[in-house]
Amino acid sequence: MSHAEIMTGNQAAAWGAKLSKVQVISAYPITPSTPITETISQWVERGEFKTEYIRVESEHSVMTVCVSASTVGARTFTATCSHGLLYMHEQLHWAAGSRLPIVMACVNRAVGAPWSIFNDQQDSIAQRDTGWIQIYCRDNQEILDSIIQAYRIAEQVYCPVMVCFDGFILSHTMMPVEIPDAEAVCRFLPPYQPHTILKPETPRNINPVIFPWQRRDAEGVLRDGYMDMRWKLQHALEGSRAAIVETGRAYAEAFGRDHGGMLWTYRTEDAEVLIAGMGSLATEATTAADILRDEGIRAGVVGVRVYRPFPREEIREAFKNAPAICVFEKNISYGYEGALSADIKAALYGAGIRTPIHNFIAGLGGRDVKARELAEAVRSSLSAIAAGTSERQTWLNCVTE
Amino acid sequence: MPEKLFKIHKEEYMLPGNRTCSGCGLALAYRYVLKALRENTILTLPASCLTVLHGLYPTTSVAIPCLNCTFASTAASASGLVAGLAAMNRSDITVVAIAGDGGTFDIGIQALSGAAERNTDFIFVCYDNEGYMNTGTQRSSATPAGALTTTTPFLTKQQNKKDMMKIMEGHDLPYLATTSPSFPIDLYEKFVKAKRIKGSRYLQIATPCPPGWVFPPKDTVKIGRLAVETGIVVLYEIEDGKFRFTGRSKTLAEKGNRVPVINFVEKQGRFKKMSMEQLGQLQRSVDQKWNEFLRRAEA
Ligand SMILES: Cc1ncc(C[n+]2csc(CCOP(=O)(O)OP(=O)(O)O)c2C)c(N)n1
Ligand code: SF4
Ligand SMILES: [Mg+2]
After folding, report:
1. CATH match of A3-188 with 3.40.50.10170
2. What are the pLDDT digits (tens) for A103-116?
């Protein structure tokens, strides 16, 4: 039977892994994701969670263990963030290139130098181009549910999935969370049945050196070259949208909770300004929209839940009638702008939409962002847009001279 | 000795035709390694000359399943295979990680030390050709002092070779051994033995490399033999902490007839700029280590 408990985001992530009956877990401590692995350690040592738990000596090895274990057919999980995630970078590419359905919880944290243990999303955004699906969660319930969903998505499309949530803001905050019935989760997520596994009965050489062009195998069949394989990964990621949306729907049917497929919207109908964001910042934006609406400004929120694959069509649909857009995000692509803002602009360009977009970089390294500050920022943007400023980058609550 | 050859498994797992250079010491050794390991083995290996030996997608010259991994991750990759196979209830498979000296002494040492400390149930093999050969002979921490490489092109490498066996011994392993392709029976027997033991096992193969060491490909076996005759490479095994000379080194230890290191050095172009001081230093360090081994063997 399902039941509710008060728990942190980290505990919700651990529950997600447990309910998904993960077979191999590997992890390395880093704040604020450590409690996920500590929670799992306790379950494993108490005999409440039967899984191979490998406590390795670095995050590079963490992701390596996930890759190899997955190659021989095991369902694998890990959790990390920030420098841990960056240290895995090479292996993130290797995991996606190997087309393995690994799922990881990424507890978003800033990246040094200098050291900061506090929240922003620079860590996972910096891994944007590794070939992983990225889901950004808004609350602890969504974390638990998304991890279960992530396995179902990953194992359909053979792409790894990163379930991201904001460090401390969610990872260390208690909220009531419904823990679904284990049997029901099993029905929703049957055991992993890979199409290929490495085993002595069918010797093969996985991920050897490959040439630019196609080559014939021993039977004379022409096989992919490097670039053909890369296209397949791109194609799989683009195609994963359908699996993500279907999984969200099926989950809602089975468990009664719908967190949105690729994105979610809040009070967007008739909006004169739309606020876009990801994770807890987007949640904060819903309060800002309420404040603005109370003042007579018709504001709404578009929360990007899945950042890769990017919800191109959904973004176009959501923004097509908005006269103004404000994108708030906790990352910066140095030398340009926030990654989300750049991507939204690119998506709208393809549909011929030329709405003014203001980009706000906010909350880096854990700097507080309050709903009323977001509302104030939107107000100032609206006047600037009215005065003809169609493009602007603002660092919120930041000394900029 | 020849009759012992008949004990060697007939099956070939290294198929005819691979991409190593002619006279490659690794290729010689690998054939016997695989014969000893046989079926029910999964290999994992990083970027190295061995990747090249295994062939270009979609063909391979090795009939044992293999997972390629990134340069630093070999032992962690083995850990993942062991964990995954345990989760799949496949306890009958031996996991073997095999890397070059760069992938072992240098970039792979962290993952190796971690896996060994966890006593992961696997065999780690380092084939030591004393340099980054796949990338064209750069120095590694396994390159001996006095050798020319493309990153020590005029002055030669100034530092001594790292003693990796000692480092691995510090991990309390159930089995460690050194081998050479010039002594295939000794090599074969050690791998057969290693396969039967549980826990982390570490084997090092001293593999001569004609282009990297600059000697004619026809001399590989001779150079490998000279390495042992001079005591630069010592054949031994350490089982549950107990040291034992093996094969030719055992005979040398009993008869006391090692030859001077110059006999090994003078045959290789890589040592052509070696100073007399470096040569003397090499002889002294070989003698000192040899005496250490003699003491251990007596104990
Ligand atoms: C992280 C990383 N750095 C560098 C390389 C380039 N690289 C590939 S093989 C190699 C040398 C391998 O040397 P070793 O392990 O001794 O094996 P050998 O080639 O000598 O057989 C290097 C430096 C790489 N593949 N990955
Ligand atoms: S460079 Fe040396 S180790 Fe590499 S394939 Fe050639 S001979 Fe073998
Ligand atoms: Mg080498």
Report:
1. no
2. 999 999 999 999 99
**Which of B62, B84, B117 lies at the smallest CB-CB distance from A68?**
B84
B2-298 — its CATH code?
3.40.50.970
Both tokens of A168, joined, read 């401390």
Which pLDDT does position A145 carry in this prediction? 98
Q: Which of B227, B271, B245 is nearest to B177 (CA)?
A: B245
Q: Provide the 3-class DSSP secondary structure of residue A229.
A: helix
Scanning A54-93 for CB atoms below 8 A from B yields 54-58, 60-61, 64-74, 76, 90-91
- Return residue ranges of chain A for CATH 3.40.50.920: 263-395
The residue-averaged pLDDT of A312-317 equals 97
pLDDT at A46 exceeding the cut of 80: yes
Q: Where are the domains of chain B?
A: 2-298
pLDDT score of B3 = 60
Alpha-carbon gap: A14 to the closest alpha carbon of chain B (Å): 19
Of A57, A197, A206, the CB nearest to B68: A206
Mean pLDDT of A104-130: 98
- Determine the average pLDDT of the residues in A306-328: 97
Q: Mutate which of B37, B50, B53, B69 to test chain A, going by most A C-beta atoms within 10 A?
A: B69
What is the atom index within ligand 1 of the atom nearest the CA of B106? 15
Predicted structure pTM score: 0.97
Mean pLDDT for A184-197 is 96
What was the pLDDT predicted at B54? 97
Helix ranges restricted to H, A20-139: 34-45, 59-71, 82-87, 89-97, 122-125
Q: Pick the closest to residue A60 from A80, A39, A40, A42 (CA basis).
A: A80
What is the B126 CA–ligand 2 centroid distance (Å)? 14
CATH topology classification for A263-395: Rossmann fold (3.40.50)
Asked if the Cβ–Cβ distance from B65 to A70 is below 8 Å, we say no
> Nearest bound ligand to CA B21?
2
Q: Which residue has the tokens 């120095």?
A: B139
Determine the distance separating the centroid of ligand 2 and the alpha carbon of A20, expressed in angstroms: 46
Q: Is B206 in the pocket of ligand 2 (CB under 6 A)?
A: no
Chain A nearest CA to B174, separation (Å): 20
The segment(s) of chain A belonging to CATH 3.40.50.970 are: 3-188
Closest by CA to A189, choosing from A16, A370, A376, is A16
Smallest CA–CA distance, residue B184 to chain A, in Å, is 25
How far apart are the C-alpha atoms of A108 and A121, rounded to whole Å?
Answer: 5
pLDDT (tens digit, 9 = 90+) per residue, B12-53? Answer: 999 988 899 999 999 999 999 999 999 999 999 999 999 999
CA dihedral over B157, B159, B161, B167, signed as positive or negative: negative
The finding on whether B112 has its CB within 6 A of some atom of ligand 1 is no
Q: Where are the alpha helices (DSSP H) in A276-338?
A: 280-294, 312-319
Q: Is the pLDDT of residue A207 over 60?
A: yes
- Taking 50 as the pLDDT cut, the residues of chain B under it are none
Interchain contact, B85 vs A66, CB within 8 Å: no
**3-state DSSP assignment of residue B246:** coil
CB contact under 8 A, B56 and A209: yes
**Residues A351-357: what's their mean pLDDT?**
96
